[in-house]
Amino acid sequence: xxxxxxxxxxxxxxxxxxxxxxxxxxxxxxxxxxxxxxxxxxxxxxxxxxxxxxxxxxxxxxxxxxxxxxxxxxxxxxxxxxxxxxxxxxxxxxxxxxxxxxxxxxxxxxxxxxxxxxxxxxxxxxxxxxxxxxxxxxxxxxxxxxxxxxxxxxxxxxxxxxxxxxxxxxxxxxxxxxx
Length: 179
Prior knowledge:
6 strands, 15% helix, alpha+beta, Thrombin, subunit H
């Protein structure tokens, strides 16, 4: 996954700068949030009136904390899921607080999808948190790079990040109880 950081000297139209939320306390399970994205309905031509973003309200459903960086032991928010609708094409859109200051909590990356059927669930969105966005921005400003942990990379690729308890029991020959 790539994130592009753009800096403008001028504000276009009535667009306002976004305030990025920082701190794990802002990304807590069951916080009320709003998703904003431009998926689903692309304009048919460049001459058409610009479409408005698709907006949906929901909550933060799950927060995953892992050590973000290689050689780090300190868990930080690495990903969270939301119940607000995130339609196809909304990737890159934002998840915002539902407070009056509308701070950016994270960036929409994908929907939930059932591999067996290919069914996409727009009410299950996966979000890269603002702390990761800020980490990348700070690295760019200082000419550095961010080296994420292998576990975070697997998580973002929706690959297995832990050993399943059932697999561990099967591999060891079953559950043994001593009476």
